[in-house]
Amino acid sequence: MITSTISTNGGRAFYDKALKAMPRGERLKLCLQCGACSGICPYGFAMDYPPHSIIAALRADDFTPVLDSDTIWLCISCFACSNVCPAQIPLTTGILASLKSEMLLRGKAPAELQTALTNSRRYGNTLGQSPRKRADWARGLTPPVPIMAEFKEPVEVLWYVGDYASYHPRVQKVSRAMARVLQAMGVKFGILGPEENSDGDAQCLIGEVGLFEMLALKNARAFDKYEFKELVTTDPHAYNTMKNEYPGVGVSVPIKHYTQFLVEHLDQLKPLLKRGQKYRVTYHDPCCIGRANKNNIYDEPRQVLGAIPGVELVEMPHHRENSICCGGGGGGMWLDGFSWEHARTRTSEWRVAEALSVGAQVLAVSCTYETPRFEDAVKSTGHEGELIVKDIAELLANAISG
Amino acid sequence: MKQDIYVLIEYLRGQVADISCVMLAAARELAQGTNGLVVGVLLGHNAQGLASDPLSGSGQWLAADRMLYVDHPALAEFTADAYQKALAGLIKDNMPCVVLFGDTSVGAEVANGLSARLGLPLVSHCYGVRVDGSVLKFVSKICGGKIMAEGALPETTTLVTMIPGGFKPEHGRGAQPPEVTTVASPALEGLRISLKQYIEPTAGDVDISREPVLIAVGRGVQRQNNLALAEDLAKALGGVVCGSRPVVDQGWLPTTRLVGKSGKSVKPKIYLALGISGAPEHVEALTGSEVIIAINTDPSAPIFNIARYGAAVDLLEVVPVLTEKVKQARSA
Amino acid sequence: MNIVVPIKFVPDLVEEMTIDESGAALDRTWLRLIINEFDDHAIEQAILLKERGGGQVMVVAPEVEGVDDVLYTAAAKGAGRLIKLTGDLGNANNHALARVFATAAKDLQPDLVLIGVQAHDDLDGAVGPLLAEYLGMPYLGYVSAVEVSDGKATVRKEYPGGLMAEMEVTLPAVLGIQAAEHPPRYVVTSKIYQAMEATTIEAQAVGELDPSGGLTVDRMFQPEAAERATMIEGDLTSIATKLVEIFKELSVLQ
User: Given CB atoms, is C181 within the 8 Å cutoff of chain A?
Assistant: First the structure.
């Protein structure tokens, strides 16, 4: 759980705060300086202070240089370091989030990130779009997608859509596909539409705790208004934060990732998948439902993909908990300019190369940042036409009715 | 007198600004309705030539019936307080029907100050004026160009600041030299503003005002590294990348590439506006473009009101496809 | 040094704007009001001056929806006093606003007044230069850099074409800010909450408004659809193909 930090002047105060305030913060004392965290970090090579060096600086009480560097913004909150640490130190949600929080307090954050934060505070979405247009992606669909404020009936599934899935043109296609899947399955569902706010995951992971809390409580108020059995999301970031961080601000919701929901209803889904999708498919494990906070949703997406006739599943070398992050988490969506300038490499391009290396024709994803990120990477690496990027929902929709 | 339309002629470092001619064209329109004269007012020091001589490079004169020239050393360079003091008496004595000013870093300051000082009504962001029977009407462009506000000009002397676009500068230039009268300047004392020096824009970059193909980026480009898409297209098409204020303010493009009120006015053959909404401060600098093509995800963006062609798609999606097609066309 | 920053609120252009039933005003039902972006820059510039040279920044705002949040955010950035003008200010034109700002500002004895150079809903001029006249102070607009010393402000004023002028003005003066030296800083939410605890907003009632100098709008409308661009439809490939055709027609491509 992430707690708020108060601006400090250097190492000592930060260290004490880290030990006292972060859950399992005292594990900081067990750091062996093995460097596994920095080694596995996709951008560790470009950071002035990769994770283990931050801890070393804290211990040496020489923290000011860390605060003067801005390379912490290369961190994409992929949880690779937290996952590999033998001492189970809370790195991503603890040390790294707190450091980012410090930087924000000092006004040292890239402008694009600041804009995304201002947008989520003002409009309830990071893209700076009108909240009134949040359900526009669903306009014109038949049957119509129920918006809870207008629908006014209890539903089986309240579907949390998310910012990018609501407003970004590429990801809106995924949302429409998901709607078709749910409708074909006969699930009674609804969305919050304009009442939905940013999930708060990015805001939380960069330590803007006040804003995270504000968003969580706004969403909670919207959830409280309606009757539903399950809360399902197509957004792993929403899943991660609602499962692991919302309880800390008093909001408990029964959140499921859509692949979990679909596996539970596989008997209903499978017979609908009539149109074969004859592809060699490789599945990209998103950090946020996988190794992040040990959410460990690895099997369910594969079960769903396995149910589609014609699909041949192949694994990439980095899969399950070793998956390579798409680069969008923890504010990464708004830091591409910054990371390109410092690192001259993109994790999404690395991922696309790996998909091609196992002969995949389709890169299947289940996260709303990934479709545009990987499609961009396919183009920027000059492989346009060689690799198709599709969300599992899109593959299902194609298998149902094309 | 009461039917006359006054125009404060704007000039900077010896060059008469285009907005002055736009205003003279607008003044002509109004004067026809009031049966009055179009009177240009020029303030300066040893600058009478600007009032009486033909405009450089055109062989034409300012299309005013009369020019009033006010000379004073304190008017050698523009400062709002000197200009206000010099004009106040002139307006009070003559009480013309309308006084037009440019909605610029010159005219707007003077007009606003005089409105408060003399208690005269003020219309700003004025795009057009016209005569409707016996009523003079204004229409102003506000809210980023999305809303037009129309009304009748008040009966008393009204001050109006104008933006370009509603009238063509050509219609404010004429074949006849105006009659120039020098008017004595009031005492200009107690001035509190002074010019120390001009700072030239940084040299050494392309001059976008001379480029025939411009690829312009606005807020819709979203992130700095997306500019590369525009650069690629510019390279393929033989054009140059420029931008609107938000892009330049962030430091993603140098100020030499700024198109807009505080930047350059451009007159390209093609102006490809990518992710630009079309706010007046930007649009006023495009009026010389031959063809404007706009790409913006918002079909109601004001840019589509001045573009010849448009597509309501995401520039991030269409530009790479377009660059490919251009490259194919070039190699074919 | 006392720096006063009067701010105003404008319709957020992110939301769709419609005209109300009278046909002469904006429909306020869905209108979101946000701080005028240029006034936000004015606050930033004021804070920068205070951080460099000391003094106090006092922000003055009319009471509209959302004003408290904006004032507390200014306090979180470093503003020392927050003044909210109460009264029927929702429909005040710029002349009326400038007059009430002048009354409020006089009491604060400013050395410097920083205000956004314009706002996109300005119809009867801009508040800054009107305010300057009502205060009897000189006005310099389109300012993008400010230094203060010895009772004078040295500023950079922007002219078209990228030309700038270094100008000097004796204080007290009103400066119309085009852009602060860097974009307005982001303030972490917890700091705004802290400001809410630590600062009080002073409410000042304004008297009757004097809107003279303004004008009446008979009609508001959206620009003519007839002037609209020819829209190219279709998927990305067909749009790109059509554009290449247009480039060829204009001899930009052979």
Answer: no
CB A284 within 8 A of CB A375: no
Question: Residue C120: which domain range?
Answer: 2-205
Token duo for residue A306: 């396995």
- Chain A hits for C183, CB-CB cut-off 8 Å, are 111
In chain C, the number of structural domains is: 1
Pairing status of strand B193-199 against strand C164-170 = antiparallel
Residue type at A85? Answer: C
Sheet holding B291-295, edge to edge: B240-243, B213-217, B270-274, B291-295, B309-311, C230-231
Q: What pTM was estimated for this model as a whole?
A: 0.89
And the tokens for C107? Answer: 């009491």
ipTM: 0.90
Of B223, B314, B320, nearest to A112 by CB-CB distance is B223
pLDDT tens figures, A252-304: 999 999 999 999 999 999 999 999 999 999 999 999 999 999 999 999 999 99
CATH classification of the domain holding C12: 3.40.50.620
CB-based contact B151 C215, cutoff 8 Å: yes
Q: Which residue type occupies B85?
A: K
Q: How many domains would you assign to chain B?
A: 2
The burial of C251, by beta-carbon neighbours within 10 Å (0-12 exposed, 13-18 middle, 19 or more buried), is given as exposed
Q: In this structure, are residues A208 and C189 in contact, taking their beta carbons and an 8 Å threshold?
A: yes
DSSP-assigned beta bridge partners for residue B66: B39, B179
Structural domain boundaries, residue B292: 208-331
B167 and B261 housed in the same domain:
no
Residue B149 phi, psi (nearest 5): -120, 125
> A334 to chain B: which residues are within 8 Å by CB?
223
Of residues C185 and A5, more confidence is placed in C185
Question: Are B153 and B90 found together in one domain?
Answer: yes
- What is the phi-psi region of residue C204: left when phi exceeds 0, alpha when psi lies from -120 to 50, beta otherwise? beta
**Contact state of C190 with A210 under an 8 Å Cβ cutoff:** yes
Out of A169, A170, A336, name the one closest to residue B223 (CB): A336
Chains that touch C (3 or more CB pairs under 8 A): A, B
Contacts of C70 (CB under 8 A, 6+ apart): C7, C9, C35, C61
Interface contact flag, A128 C185, Cβ < 8 Å: no
Contacts of C190 in chain A (CB under 8 A): 4, 209-210
CB interface of A with C, residues 113-172, below 8 Å: 114, 117-118, 121-123, 128-130, 132
C140 interfacial to chain B (CB closer than 8 Å): yes
DSSP B228: H
Q: What does DSSP assign to residue A397?
A: H
Identify residue A147 by its one-letter amino acid code.
I
Radius of gyration of chain C (CA): 22
User: Residue B39 and residue B66: Cα distance in Å, rounded?
Assistant: 5
Strand residue runs (E) in C63-151: 81-86, 112-116, 139-149
In sequence order, the β-bridge partners of residue C154 are C147, C168
Closest CA to A199 of A188, A213, A186, A189: A213
Q: Within a 13 Å sphere around the CA of A305, how many CA atoms are in the beta-carbon half?
A: 26
Could you tell me which chain B residue has the CA closest to the CA of A339? B225
Could you tell me if A55 and A49 are in contact, meaning their C-beta atoms sit under 8 angstroms apart?
no
Tokens of B188: 């200009």
DSSP B151: E
In whole angstroms, what is the distance from residue C111 CA to residue C135 CA? 12
Is residue B109 one of the residues assigned to a domain? yes
Would you say residue B189 lies in a domain? no
- Look up residue B154 and give its two tokens: 């008040």
SS3 B196: strand
Residue A5: what pLDDT? 43
* Mean pLDDT by groups of 10 residues along chain C of 254 residues: 97 90 90 95 97 96 95 97 94 95 96 97 96 97 95 93 90 96 92 95 95 93 76 91 91 79
